[in-house]
Amino acid sequence: MFLHVAPPNPLSRQYSRQVNAWVFPLFEQNWRLFAPDPESVNRQISARTLHTAPDGTVHVIGWFDLSGVDNSAVRHDVFPSHTAQNTLRRAWSSYLETHGGDDRPRSERALMMQKYLTDIAADRITGHRGGTFESASCG
């Protein structure tokens, strides 16, 4: 461990491969052990739902502030979980990475991230609004 945490020196450089092979699987250090990654961008992630009535008319329900609900839950929890703070944020970041500027999926992973984000939105909206709907979209 000393060679891993010590400032770079000839000995740590010589044995870096062996040290890293032992340290990283077992003792990788990052601040997430103590606190989640801090928000570097203030994003508002919202979703809306679509419901088709029996007569065939389509009703689009107004936007629901997913990030506002998440932020409020974290603020009012003395010990918020890492998961509660990062699920939506990381899903959104992964969605943006896999869809590019034109909002089109470019791979199977992109489709998976789209489904994952939609499932998170549907779960959160159902938990707060209730009711039924056929689809949800985020923005």
Secondary-structure element series? HHHEEEHHHE
Q: Report the span from N to C terminus.
A: 45 Å
The percentage of residues in β strands lies in: 5-15%
The total count of helices amounts to 6
Layout: helices, strands, pairs:
Layout: H1 2-5, H2 10-14, H3 16-27, E1 46-52, E2 58-60, E3 64-65, H4 66-75, H5 82-99, H6 108-129, E4 135-138
Describe the structure.
The structure is a single chain. By secondary structure, this protein is of the alpha+beta class. Helix content is 51%, strand content 12%. Strands 1, 2, 3 and 4 form a 4-stranded antiparallel sheet that branches.
Summarize this structure briefly.
By secondary structure, the chain is α+β, with helices and mostly antiparallel strands.
Pick out its properties.
139 residues, alpha+beta, four-stranded antiparallel sheet, 6 helices
